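Q: I have 322 residues here and want to know how they pack in 3D. Can you give me a structure?
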Amino acid sequence: MKISKFLIIALTAGGFTACSSDDDIDMINNDQAQTLPLTITVTENPLINPDAPSQAPVTRADITTSSSLESFILDYQYYLEEELSHGFNNVKKVDGKWEAGNWPSTDKNNQVNWYAHSHGSFNEGEAPYINFTMEGSAFDQKDLLVAKASGTYSSTSGNISLNFDHACTALRFYVKKANNLSEFKLQVTNITLCNVINQGKYYYSNSSWISGDSRSSYTLYQGSAMELGSTEYIALGVSDAPYLFMIPQTLTPWDTQTDISSATGQTYIEITCIITNNQSFNYSSKAYIPFAATLATGYQHDVKINIGKNSLYSGPNAKIFN
């Protein structure tokens, strides 16, 4: 049985071999003789942090950079006899150099479109996109890097330049007690960001997202009782993974007249806390704070939660402090 030309190219590009009749082996060897090497140059556009002082260095803790990136998937598309052909290379950094495989088309004048991504699944077609879902653990997530390029082998000499962008929003959370609670002792054992879209499609054509419908909640702090002061903000998360990565979206705050169990599509912060003072005030339960934000692609934000009398609710139409 003869192997089609498309199958031969796909097998060669992926580094596989196949055997059938002697004629088929000759065909494969002829295509392998035309294999074109592929080399890659990688750069990166850093996240924009409008909250950082202009003189301050950009914090890079768990945010992936071009220097810390060790591997990624490089999908490609090109037309072969008027049909769209798709494949991919697993690209890895070995001894500081990128091992990229071979150029997929043996026609040096055939344009190839390249789509790189550090995570997620690629969907080929006329409007290619990445299907991406955020991991459930708030501080065990992955920074999604994406890049695209195009060209023929003749125009690029087999070298493609990939300038990676950060496709998500990176948030770092801080918390403290507001001044109007200075006479109260405030301890927290859990802080959770609730009702956030966790899945979406990133389109390469216009670098935009279409959000899905599924939502998740992310624990920002969980542990022994942490007493908050009103002077300094405390950074949440572990030191080597302080960022929460999120699908770009607009977060609609919880309507405080709506029951929490019915607040679908509304975002809020849930705090398990103990609030006491010397006048026998004792609140030991969950408290809720409406949360609104516009999260844009490629931005890094510091989110400061200032827990005070005006923002704490025990339920719909029920402020803890009147």
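Q: Anything worth noting?
A: The first strand starts at residue 36 and ends at 37. Confidence is low (pLDDT under 50) at residues 1-33, 54-61.
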